[in-house]
Amino acid sequence: MINGKLLAQMFISGANNLYNNRFSVDELNVFPVPDGDTGTNMSMTATAMAKALSEVQTESVSKTADIMSFATLRGARGNSGVILSQFFRGMSKSLKGKMSCGAKDIAAALCAGSDTAYNAVMNPTEGTILTVAREAANAAKKTDGDLIAIFEAAVKKGGETLKKTPEMLPALKKAGVVDAGGQGWLFVLEGALYFLKTGEVVTKNESEQPEETEQSTSAQQKIDTENIKFMYCTEFIVEKKDSSVNVLSFKKAIEKIGDSMLVIDDDDIIKVHIHTNNPGYVLECAVKLGAMINIKIDNMKHQHQSLITQEEKSEKTEAVAEEKPHKEYGFVSICAGSGISGIFKDLGVDEVIEGGQTMNPSTDDILNAVNNINADNIFVFPNNKNIILAANQAKEISKKNVIVIPTRSIPECIAAMLKFSEGKDAAANETAMNKAVSKVVTGQITYAVRDTEVDDKKIHKDDILGLAGSKIKTVGTNPDEVLMELVDELCDEDSEFITLYYGEDVKQEDAERAAELIEEKYDEVEVSVKYGGQPLYYYIISVE
Fold first, then answer.
1. Are residues 148 and 187 in the same domain?
2. Which has more pLDDT, 223 or 532?
């Protein structure tokens, strides 16, 4: 009979085997952009489970399976990690109440895990981890014999199915790879089988572990207050006196006396945000457009120094921070790049989680951010298709009213935040935000990490890629040239605004020159440039 400790050792071995092979799984990513992190996400999810299982003392199969489910649920990263967590969730339900079990029970649990993972995906696709896990589980269920025989059958059938995945998904065949998630799951099964055959857990190869970056340093402490050029963060809303007010003239009047400017012409109101040393002048210009409400002016140098002083005091005294004031709405957003993070903060986002491509935050990271906000309704913006499932999983776990706006890009989040209204209820804001997201077109300029062929485009490593949504539209060798080609793809006769968020590898003067060229070509479109500071992506483009 199988007890809880044996089950734990099996899947610790499986998690370690996946960890040791995570980079080879990453390399199976079909899309050549620098976000091939299936192996990393699955491995981090499984490693969270292995860590929890290493402390297991219980003989109960049911309790061990519950630990596996709970640890992966909270540690899930990326879509592949969430699917993996759902697999263990299904296993846990199948083994509920069992102190010990037989081989057939484990086979049934594998099937239950597969079913739960399938049900968790809105539009399941064959040729993915779901297919490999299902076929492996069905083979285990049909096999008579002990636990070794069952896992041998699962590994054999899983491997055969994995080899067939390119025939199920044309994108895999064209790239000449098998499904990354399916390969990751096979590594887990093989690791478990190794333990069953040898009685030894696969040794985790820590030598391949990449260097960890120090992320605990406060973002505020990384900023030198002497470098704050414009002191006053000025925000307000203008209720237009009539429809003929000239918003463009207002923008031109104030843009030269500050930075981080956002002026949004939204039907009957105008939302304004700017960092300036002359807030009085901004208000004087604005009052000509209509009545002003919700005026807020903060001294950023004073505010920043107060934050640092408070942090230092907190570190010295180890005092517990006072509870944050209660409010009706709160916001959590995920991004990479100090500039974009600053924009989100200016828009009112309470918790900005560092993450995105190649570094998807876990369900627990999102849940912790939600818990840090004392609000009745909390909106979460994933800003990446590979984080949406983890955000929804955090929503399920949280006891708070969490609303996930399924944003897939930074511009979508900004558009959604600009549509938020304090005077509307949560449902109305959700509707307005989703509508705003649907009207935004996002483009990105990055580079290829491997040779491949996508949509009949031959791509070589280090080529510059122009993406519209998730489609590669242009390929070249120069970021600025690819940018111009991509803008041609993104713009149509209805386009009014283009915003360029330039990354950490782009000089400000180059970004401004690119904007000038776009304005010359599209003289009826208003183009603005903002520092994003994002890694990996030269430009993020918003077209509205």
1. yes
2. 532
